[in-house]
Design brief:
single chain, alpha/beta, 5-stranded parallel beta sheet, two-stranded antiparallel sheet, 16 helices, elongated
């Protein structure tokens, strides 16, 4: 364990030496390498995504491969050179195609830049190779693939990965630059760092045994995950499903990712911290898994949700010893009773009477707890409680609320319900067309009828329905 801890500390030291800030992204990359899970990093250009991966590879002298994908990427560009050879046979000439291995087939860490730009025919096979870590039936030495992408909504030719493809990358992280975060102290350190002419991360000398990752992976597999960590993980998932209403329509919470690979990431966090046993705080690595698997507003709260579950679990663990003490006391009392039985036996009737009395008390307390039956103090409190609008509430419950009484008033927008006499010539447009036509040909003192338009001026009653149960006191 010591050599692993020293190796990880050296890698982090090299990362800190050339990259200021971005601590979460540094941790995400190391967690991916230790657990041998793939990583997806999304963020604007120039936020040290590729640099950190390359520093980690160079420090441990791992074979590093970088490729920038584009719309015309062909699979041969990723796996090596295609060789076409002719062979003569008795039946004629054969043309065979083979691949001289290269690219991701020989790398231990590879960075696939702008993965969202890759065409489907290359991307599908690429993701299959990453998932199986095989090509042509042979295993490849790949430890971790780090895929990067710019925010897809900003570019026309940049299509977001569909959830199934994105799920191939266990660790997911969304990064933002120091400037966008208003981290000016860190920005000042970057300016000072690269103002120094001697700063050149391309000249990193390997300082970590490359086999340290092999030992770290073996140690990770053997890390103990105690009961409380397992329970906290399940409680976190239950909270997301039941309290935040996550389902297959708005999230991607799969058994493979959260129950299998999630445990690997928790174990890897323990290894990075120099421990052979996971603790509750290791559950915070879930923020690297939920990034694009849950809605953005939920992911923004994931650290707070996880912290709350950890605190609740710690409180429950502190209360457990009290329960153990009670169990020990019960055992001691049982031993004393056995001793009494061996000595002078108690009167059987008296013993049964005491048991019945205790049982009645327990049942009475249980009923008050289960059914909200108040004690003496609660009854006194309930008698003083007043409920407003009780009469109207009872009307609503009984279904006897009368309809509101509405007055009809003259209104231009009302419906024509009856007729009335024309008062002046302003009403000429509202007259019966036939009568107004006849009147205009032969005007008489008797004016034509006009529509009587009325509109109900409605009123009403207000019912306030309140929770008046004893549970709300």
């Amino acid at each position: 364990m010591k050599d692993v801890n020293k190796g990880m500390a050296n890698i982090i030291s090299e990362m800190d030496k050339y990259v200021v800030g971005h601590d979460d992204m540094k941790e995400a990359i190391l967690l991916g390498i230790v657990s041998r899970e793939h990583i997806y990093l999304e963020g604007p250009p120039g936020t040290a995504k590729t640099m950190l991966a390359e520093i980690a590879a160079d420090t441990a002298d791992l074979h590093f491969y970088f490729y920038q994908l584009h719309r015309d990427t062909r699979l041969a560009e990723l796996v090596g050179d295609i060789i076409i050879a002719r062979e003569k046979s008795t039946e004629g000439e054969l043309i065979k195609q083979s691949i001289r291995k290269g690219g991701i087939l020989t790398a231990e860490i590879c960075v696939l830049d702008d993965v969202s730009r890759a065409p489907g025919e290359a991307l599908n096979i690429l993701l299959r190779i990453l998932n199986e870590r095989k090509y042509g039936g042979e295993k490849i030495p790949l430890l971790t693939a780090i895929a990067t992408s710019n925010p897809t909504k900003d570019e026309y030719y940049n299509e977001p990965l569909d959830p199934a493809n994105l799920d191939r990358f266990t660790i997911q992280y969304k990064t933002v630059g120091l400037i966008q975060q208003n981290m000016w102290e860190a920005a000042k350190k970057v300016v000072d760092l690269y103002a120094d002419a001697t700063t050149d991360y391309s000249q990193i000398v390997p300082s970590v045994d490359r086999n340290v990752f092999e030992r770290a992976f073996k140690l990770m597999s053997a890390v103990e995950v105690p009961k409380e960590v397992k329970e906290a993980l399940l409680e976190l998932l239950s909270t997301l499903i039941n309290d935040y209403k996550l389902d297959d329509t708005n999230s991607l919470l799969t058994d493979r990712t959260f129950l299998v690979k999630g445990i690997k990431i928790i174990k890897s966090k323990a290894i990075l911290s120099g421990r052979s046993k996971a603790i509750l705080e290791d559950l915070k690595v879930m923020k690297y898994i939920t990034t694009f698997r849950v809605p953005p507003d939920v992911h923004e709260q994931i650290e707070e949700i996880t912290e709350e579950i950890i605190d609740k679990k710690k409180i429950a663990m502190e209360e457990e010893p009290d329960s153990d003490e009670e169990a020990d006391q019960a055992e001691e009392m049982g031993s004393e009773e056995e001793g009494e039985e061996q000595g002078e036996p108690m009167d059987q009737a008296a013993q049964e009477g005491e048991q019945k009395e205790a049982l009645d008390k327990n049942m009475s307390a249980l009923q008050r707890k289960e059914f909200g039956d108040p004690g003496d103090e609660e009854e006194q409190y309930l008698h003083k409680e007043t409920i407003e609008n009780i009469d109207l509430l009872l009307k609503v419950i009984k279904g006897k609320v009368e309809k509101s009484i509405a007055d009809q008033i003259p209104h231009r927008g009302g419906q024509p319900r009856s007729w009335q006499h024309m008062k002046d010539l302003d009403d000429i447009l509202d007259t019966d067309p036939v009568e107004s036509s006849l009147w205009s040909e032969d005007a008489t003192p008797s004016l034509p009828r006009v529509y009587k338009r009325d509109k109900k001026q409605s009123g009403g009653e207000l019912a306030i329905l309140r929770d008046v149960s004893s549970s709300m006191m």
